[in-house]
Amino acid sequence: MFFPRLLALICLVGFASGTGVLPDDEVESLRVIARSMGKRDWNFDVDPCSGLSGWVTQNPDKGFENAVTCNCTFANNTVCHIVSIDLTRNYLNGTIPPEWGSMNLVNISLLGNPITGSIPVQLANISTLANLTLECNQLSGTIPPELGNLPRIEKLLFGSNNLTGELPETLAKLTTLREFRISDNNFRGSIPSFIQNWTNIEKLMIQASGLTGPIPSSIASLTKLTDLRISDLNGNETTFPPLSTIGKTLILRSCNIVGELPSYIGEMTGLKVLDLSFNKLSGPIPNSFARLFDTDYMELPNRDAAKLDADRWGNNVQLSPIFFIEITCYFQAKKILRQESWHLSDIVCSDLSYNNLTSESSTSNCQPRDLNLFASSKGNTSGIVYCLRHVRCERRYSSLHINCGGRQERVARPRGTATYEEDTNSGGPSSFTTSRTNWGFSSTGHFLDEDRPIDSFVWSNSSSISGPNSQLYMNARLSPISLTYYGFCMINGNYTVYLHFAEIMFTSDRTYSSLGRRIFNIYIQGNLVWKDFNIEYEAGGVNKGITKNFTAIVTDNTLDIRFSWAGKGTTVIPVRGVYGPLISAISVDPDFTPPSVENGNSTSVGGNSISVGVIVGIAVGVLLTILLGLLSDGTIIAVKQLSAKSKQGNREFVNEIGMISALQHPHLVKLYGCCIEGNQLLLIYEYLENNSLARALFGKPQDAYEKGHMWICFVIYLLMDQVNANSLKEERNLMELVDPRLESNFNKEEVMTAINIGLHCTNVIAAERPNMSAVVSMLEGKVGVREFVSEPSASTGKMNSNTDEGQSISMDVPWTASSASTSDLYPLIVDTGYWEKRDQ
């Protein structure tokens, strides 16, 4: 830039001479500035241009400036004039004095001070002004229209204040402008089209400014832009703006952009950062994107995206909300750079979390290698993310306690002592991590322009925190954009979520480090529960723990808690890169009484205590009751209690132990064990939920439970409507059983075959029912199906008296099937004395 070099030359010439004197009127102006802004270390007993006594800090800390710079080349080096006042991060109070308007300043920098009031219109009188930096203060009011008259201005930096109103039209005249920042304010109106006049602009930052979209198409005329950052625009949807000349950084996050990605982005090979997250882009990622091999960070998420080309990304992959690719470790081999197409398997370090990938192409692993696929599958809005659906829940949980960023801690709570699990994984810009129990977290984004000493996503507190459970607030997890904690294998029901916060990166002293503002949003189960949450404000200061509680309803055994940065708050205090969500601990407690051994009827299975309660009873062939159970280790089970007096129940008990325990199949529930005690017969199965006949018949594919069986549903339907079925059979009108919503869109011959098979399977005489092998053979057309003849006179007594094992089926058409006896599959010996006792 021109003016820093100019100031360095002026400083060298002016201080080298040592003979120049500052005029009295400028000295008086400095006195006014010192009084109005609380600048107490200026010593007016010496010449302000001497560089002594607080007028210049030699070798200041990075980001901290305290310098009054003079040009002493006037009147043969005998007269000095102040050309720069840089008071960055000096913790100055008060207001900006109008007296500055009478000085011939080139540079004014007040970044990182709690200065209040408005921007004085008198600053527009400084015709020499090239840089006006007022970021990270507490200024209010509007931007004075008079600033549009500054003829030499190059930098206007107003970010992180409380400025309001519309951008004045007079700013269109600032053709010398090179950098313009107004992020984190409360402006209104839309982004003005007059920015097309800023033909020398190189950096333009309008993040969470309050302005609305759309982005004007005239922005294409800004050919010198190297850094464009626009985010969080409200307003109407807009297509992707023409931005083919952007040099290094392009951020258009949450700008309501729709349509396809332009292929020219792939030609912008100088890009280092590309962020198009939280838009509504659709269509394929262009082949040209493969050329962006020098890009450091790329985010291409979309909420409502269409399919990508299958030959590049696999089958039915879709764009969506946080697609972060660190392309510095992107390609496995240089030869890929010569290929037009690019493949998901070629990505070494990437993040596809919060996407709408279709479930067909989704993986059961949330992070294979370095690829973050957390919440990447299509249909995430319906519940659990795809890559967690395959998590096997050996038990169900009714609580969750996490010490975010810290080690395991034992904490006293109103409901008793709880162990907060360790969460010390370093995380990173693209990571999904799971615990050894029932939770995990996904972190997305990268801290841009950061000056933090450690590029860490976990922060440790260097100060002490007073109050109860202070150990929970000594560490915290950070994220630059989005941080989601996920609890799975949860018992469905209502919960109270306790979120523990403490601001541990700012200070409470009277320094610039106390001026930071951290603002982010909180979502629970996808619902926004707190917008613009500010930890320090809610806690009443820094290093003070605060807990916020919310209600959550778990319906699919999963709980998600997300923290999201929307561009608000400071980003440069105490250093650049301090912003985004911060969470100290999470606790989740049930609002119901979890099943336990103290509640309900208890029995014992394999050394585990079971607490059960009746949930449903169905009479199908024999009397039975299904009980909901909970083992002492938390595993939820289904307990099938067979009739204590039915001989058929005896046989069913033996058959199920032999058959189901010997067979392992995705469509068969698992048999954990059995219990024979007194006259009780209990079979212990894995507990399956979220299933119903209606869902299996009419639900969407993703809603149909994996182990639901359509044929069983059909048989149950015939059982419920058996009287009507027999009546229709006699009337030769079985087609009336077909759902009328199918209209005529089915094969009548196939339907009649299925109905006849179903009627055979529901025959009141058990011995006349075909086994499942025979049913399969008939459905496959390997054997014929005899027309069913009902036996209305058949009685329950006859049914019970003809159920001996091994009885053959007497029909004209033989059932051909291969089968194995129970004893072949699973030899079982039961003391005959048991059977005698239980029938007494």
TrEMBL record:
It is a single-pass type I membrane protein. Its EC number is 2.7.11.1. The keyword Transmembrane applies. Pfam families: LRR_1 (PF00560), Malectin (PF11721), PK_Tyr_Ser-Thr (PF07714). SUPFAM superfamilies: L domain-like (SSF52058), Protein kinase-like (PK-like) (SSF56112). Keywords: ATP-binding, Glycoprotein, Leucine-rich repeat, Membrane, Nucleotide-binding, Phosphoprotein, Receptor, Repeat, Signal, Transferase, Transmembrane, Transmembrane helix. Residues 1-18 form the signal peptide. GO terms for cellular component: membrane. It comes from the Eukaryota. It is an enzyme of class 2 (transferase). It catalyses: L-threonyl-[protein] + ATP = O-phospho-L-threonyl-[protein] + ADP + H(+); L-seryl-[protein] + ATP = O-phospho-L-seryl-[protein] + ADP + H(+). The chain crosses the membrane at residues 610-631. Residues 612-840 form the Protein kinase domain. It is found in: Membrane. InterPro entries: Kinase-like_dom_sf (IPR011009), Leu-rich_rpt (IPR001611), LRR_dom_sf (IPR032675), LRR_Rcpt-Like_S/T_Kinase (IPR051824), Malectin_dom (IPR021720), Prot_kinase_dom (IPR000719), Ser-Thr/Tyr_kinase_cat_dom (IPR001245), Tyr_kinase_cat_dom (IPR020635). Residues 413-432 are annotated as: Disordered. GO terms for molecular function: ATP binding; protein serine/threonine kinase activity; protein tyrosine kinase activity. This is non-specific serine/threonine protein kinase.
